Request: fold
Amino acid sequence: MIGGIRLPNAGQRLVPALVCGLAIATLWAGAATWYLVFHDEILARFVSQQTALQYAYEERIGALRLQLDRATMEHLATREGLVARVADLSQRQAAMEKRQAQLSLLASEAGHPIASAGRSAADDPAETGALGYAATITDPVAKTPAKPAPKPFPTPDAFELRSRDDAPGRQSLRETEQVLAGLDRRLDGLGAHQIRTLDALGVRAIRGSQRLRDIVIRVGLDPQRFERQREAGIGGPLVPLSADPFGIAVGQVRRALGEEDRLRRIASALPVRQPLAGNYSLSSGFGPRLDPFTRGLALHTGLDMKAEFGESARATAAGRVTVADYNGGYGNIVEVDHGSGLVTRYAHLSSIAVGAGEWVEAGAAIGRVGSTGRSTGSHLHYETRIDGEPVDPQRFLRVLGGSDAQFLAAR
Reply:
């Protein structure tokens, strides 16, 4: 009913429909108006969010590239360091081998071969080339298959660098470092062993020289008297010695060995051996005595040694035979010049086995015991003379004990 007028039923139903249509039109108009007003702001915010996300990923990619470059540089530096260490170890090994050759030469000169006691071939890098493995190390990481690079998906953990300690490349580097460290320790040990060996050779040579010098002094001779025999011409090109401490030490040991060898030759030339085999007894000593023929006081210039007729008389030192003939009261006599003014005489021989000018070695038979010349029976008259003057042979014959005789005959 409108204004007191009652509407039909169809009109009553149209009113709610009009109201609803008007509401929908109002809402649509409002939404369209809001979209037209705020469209640019929404679009700008969306674009800004996308740009920020892009910048974030680009920044992260740049950081990861820097890390990758840094890791690559560290790898190159490590590889170059390993190569440098291998080169250094190779040089040290070459130096050790050169030193070992010098030590072997010194030991052969000294007559004491070097034995590698307690050392196996695998434990001696300088002798077995144990650097062969290390010398092949140029890029230990390259031997390990590289991990595939991660795909550039924009996920939070796709670009993270994994640096686990058990990664194959790092494990190879660690093992290589251990190998090089082990080789370094072996070379250090070998170097110390070579120094000890060199010191032992030097000490042994010095002690040998002292012992030989003592033998010369005990017979009443000055070792300096033998220096006069060495006035020979010397010369040659100048070759400066190395400033290496080991080379200097080798030179010092070589000089000590040369001095020992010189003194050994001097001591070996001394008439300190027995002229008769086995034990002997004296029938007359050196010095004043009653002459067996005149019964007056006279100087006996040697030793009369009891011996059986025909027993071998032997040279007490190496030398040159200067007399081998009959000589008055001496009867059959052999005289041997040992150099440096030292001479020995073997008299009253029944026969002579050498000739004048012949070289005889120590212990060589020079004749047989007899009783020729001014003699009362079978015996050997033995003399030693220094610069033509007779001296008591006992000063030579008593100087060598058992150990001294073995030491003198060692080389």
